Amino acid sequence: MQMQILTTTRAHFLLSFFLNYLLFSSPFIQGFQPLPAPTSGGDHYFESPLSPPALPPVPADGGGYGYAPTSPAVIGQWHEGSPGAPAPIPENGVGGDRDESTASAPAMDNGGVRWCAVRDQLEECQFFVGVIDQLTGYTWKCVQREKAQDCMESIKKGEADLVNLEAGLAYNAFINHSMKAIANEMYYDHSKTYKAVAVVNRRACENNEKITLMDFKGHKSCHGGYSTAAGWNYPINYIKNLINNEELSDREIATSFFSSVCAPSEVEGFDICNACSKENETCPEKGLYSGHSGAFRCLVEELGDIAFVKGDTVLLYSMEGPHSQLWSSKSVRDFMYLCPQGGCREINGYPGDCSFGAVPANVIMAHNSMPNKKREHILETLTNSSLVDALYAPNNVSIIHLFSPSTQGLAMIEKVTRPYLGKSASISQSILRLNAPETRVASYEADNGSDESSSSSYICCSQVMTMLSLLMLPLILGITPK
C-alpha cells in the first residue's frame, strides 16, 4: 500500500512537472510567445516619466505640420533603476543575444563627442556644439564629410560618434555599419512621424480631375534623395506594386517609369541625375538638388514634373515659407499634393491619406559599441530643455540642415532600431531584395539575425520537445500498452 502511495505521488509530481513544462515552453500558449531576436544589439528602452505639455490637436492621422511658434519640448529622461528600465549592459555597448564584441572599430571615448556633419551642415554643427560646450563643459566637435555614407564609414572606423539620418539611410546604417538609433527628432505636437508625399504643379491637377500617378509615366521626376524613405523607397515601392513587376531593380523601375530622374545619393556611385544635370548622369556639385528641399527646387525650376518629398517641404521652401531660398520663386498655391489613389489635395501641411504613408522621424545614429557612459551623456545632453531653449533663441543661427527645419526637440528612442523604423524598414528591405535578392538580404540576416528565422527555429524546437514529452508521459506514469 505504501509503495502504491509513493508511486502515485511520484506520478502526480512528474505529471505536474511536465504539464508546467508544456505550459511555459509551448509557443502556442497565449501570452507566452517567444520574443523576437534583437535586431540591433545594445539598443535600449527608455522610460518617459514626464508628461508633455498640452498643445493644440492635429488631425487624427498624425501627419500634420502646424506652424505653432517653436518652443522647447518637454522630454522624459531615462534613468537606471526606474520601473521598466533595462538592466545595464557591458561597457562595450553589447546587449541582447547578439555578440557585438567583434564589431569593427569600436567608438572609443576620447574625452569628447564628434558629430559628423554632411556638406553644408558644418556651420550649423559648429554653432550647435558651441552651445553644448557652454551648457555642459564637455567637449563636442564637428567632423565634416561629403556624404552621409562617409559619415557612416567614419563612425564605423571610430573617427566620429554621431550622425543625423532620415529613416531610409538609417536602415542602411543599421544593417551595413553596425549602428543603432539612440534619439529622434520631434515635430509639432510631439509628433514622431511625417508623411511621404508626391507634389505636382496645380495646373496638372486642374487639367485632369481624375489624375493619378500613372499619368506621370514617361514624365520627369525629382526625388528627395536615392534610398531615402519619402524621396525614394516609399514611392518606388508603390510604383513596383502598381506595375506588378518584381524582376526590376529599384533604379530600373524608376528609369523605366519616368523619362528622366533627379535623385542625388548619399551613397557614392548611386546617383541618378539625368533630369537635373547637363552631364547626363553626374549630379551637380554642392548638392543643389540634394535632400527634400533640393527635390522641390528641381520641381520649381521645372526640371521635373513631380517631386517626392516630405509633407511639409513645400510649406517650408515656397515663396511664402519660413525657409524660402533665392530659388523659391513660386507660391505654395502653385502646387498640390498628388494622392496615390487618384486626385489632388491642397497643400496645408495635413496630407492625411493623400500620401504614401507615415515615415518615422529622423534619428541620431551611433555605433553599437559606444560605451554606456558616453551614450548616457549624449542622451542627457540632447534632451536637455536648456539646449532646446538656447538653440531656438531669437537671432541665433537657423538650424535647417543639421536637423529637419520643423524639428522642435529631440527625444530618446523608446524602441530598438528595427521596430522604431517599422514600416519604413520593411519597405527598405523590400527595395534591397529587388537590387540583390540573395546577397543583400542574406547579409542582413547574417549581420543582424532574422526575427522570422529565429522565431521559426524556436517554434520548431518547442514542437519537437512537446511531442517527446507527450510520448514519455505514459512511460513515466507506468502506463504500458497491453
From TrEMBL:
<protein>
    <recommendedName>
        <fullName>Transferrin-like domain-containing protein</fullName>
    </recommendedName>
</protein>
<keyword id="KW-0732">Signal</keyword>
<dbReference type="Pfam" id="PF00405">
    <property type="entry name" value="Transferrin"/>
</dbReference>
<dbReference type="GO" id="GO:0055037">
    <property type="term" value="C:recycling endosome"/>
</dbReference>
<dbReference type="GO" id="GO:0005769">
    <property type="term" value="C:early endosome"/>
</dbReference>
<dbReference type="InterPro" id="IPR001156">
    <property type="entry name" value="Transferrin-like_dom"/>
</dbReference>
<dbReference type="GO" id="GO:0005886">
    <property type="term" value="C:plasma membrane"/>
</dbReference>
<dbReference type="GO" id="GO:0005615">
    <property type="term" value="C:extracellular space"/>
</dbReference>
<feature type="domain" description="Transferrin-like">
    <location>
        <begin position="113"/>
        <end position="439"/>
    </location>
</feature>
<feature type="region of interest" description="Disordered">
    <location>
        <begin position="81"/>
        <end position="105"/>
    </location>
</feature>
<feature type="signal peptide">
    <location>
        <begin position="1"/>
        <end position="31"/>
    </location>
</feature>
<dbReference type="GO" id="GO:0006826">
    <property type="term" value="P:iron ion transport"/>
</dbReference>
